[in-house]
UniProtKB/TrEMBL annotation:
Listed name of the protein: Ribose import ATP-binding protein RbsA
CDD domains: ABC_Carb_Monos_I
Gene3D superfamilies linked to this entry: P-loop containing nucleotide triphosphate hydrolases
Keywords from the named record: ATP-binding, Hydrolase, Nucleotide-binding
The enzyme's E.C. designation: 3.6.3.17
Length: 259
């Protein structure tokens, strides 16, 4: 994988303070086209703060974020979404009582043509259902039979699948996944990992936060090791073992020099 091209998503010198706590301390990050970059680090290392900054959920105090080489400023998650960056948080941000299709389009509902673009135009349910069905089937999620099924009736893995499919449907440039397999069993995790690889093969690069080293080593092209609010190093999973990665992230072993 060539790293000479301009990164799709880049962070330079991000600083984020919460009172006396410095969650991000001159943090850098790079994500290139066609790759999955895993972000690993101990609890409290600042991984969530990094992805929140890149997805508009927090505004950094210093530093810059570049999308395809151009500086961007995200004041809200809507700003980042408008630029094609979709984030799936552990909480999934779904309405359990609503259908799969309604959840896929939550906050960006399609409406039928109407008088002067009035907000009172009727929802175009048929189109939203069709697009949802297409997106889920493209990603091989046809175990979900009924697009009108309430999300609360789905298994944890299926919900995660819908959340990732929603991100893939609208995240044209980058998808950020926060612990996507944390609450899942072995079989469901496997399906979600396959889905992640599927999304990458469709040309969408992915940032993956995970504490699960086997999952990280299975899907990541590069691993960003985060420690004390900054990027400690970036390693190729082919060159290191999981114990090496854990030792770097905890400080038990010196990290390789080049970041
Ligand atoms: N909203 C907040 N207010 C105050 N402190 C915060 C806030 N968010 C994060 N922090 C602090 O910033 C530091 C980094 O937190 P962050 O959640 O980014 O780490 P993390 O690597 O994602 O941790 P974990 O793996 O436990 O989720 C921690 O010390 C945390 O307590």
């Amino acid at each position: 994988m060539t790293q000479s091209s301009t990164p799709i998503l880049q962070a330079r010198g991000l600083v984020k303070r919460y009172g006396r706590v410095t969650a991000l301390d001159q943090c850098d990050f790079d994500l290139h086209a066609g790759e999955i970059v895993a972000v690993i680090g101990d609890n409290g290392a600042g991984k969530s703060s990094l992805i929140k900054a890149m997805s508009g959920a927090v505004v950094p105090d210093e530093g810059e974020i570049l999308l395809e080489g151009k500086p961007v400023r995200f004041n809200t998650p809507t700003d980042a979404r408008a630029e094609g960056i979709e984030t799936v948080y552990q909480t999934l941000a779904m309405s359990p009582a609503l259908s799969i299709a309604d959840n896929m389009f939550m906050g960006r509902e399609l409406r039928k043509p109407g008088w002067r673009g009035s907000v009172l135009r009727q929802l175009d349910r048929a189109r939203m259902e069709q697009i949802s069905r297409d997106k889920l089937s493209e990603l091989g999620l046809m175990t979900i039979q009924n697009i009108n099924q309430a999300v609360e009736t789905l298994s944890g893995g299926q919900r995660q699948g819908v959340a990732v499919a929603r991100a893939a449907a609208f995240g044209s440039k980058v998808i950020i996944l926060d612990e996507p397999t944390a609450a899942l069993g072995v079989k469901e995790s496997r399906r979600v990992l396959e889905l992640i690889l599927d999304v990458r093969s469709r040309g969408i690069p992915i940032v993956l936060i995970s504490h699960n080293m086997p999952h990280v080593f299975e899907v990541a092209d590069r691993i960003h090791v985060h420690r004390l609010g900054k990027r400690l190093c970036v390693i190729d999973p082919k060159d290191y073992t999981m114990s090496d990665a854990v030792a770097f992230m905890t400080g038990a072993k010196d990290a390789p020099l080049a970041a």
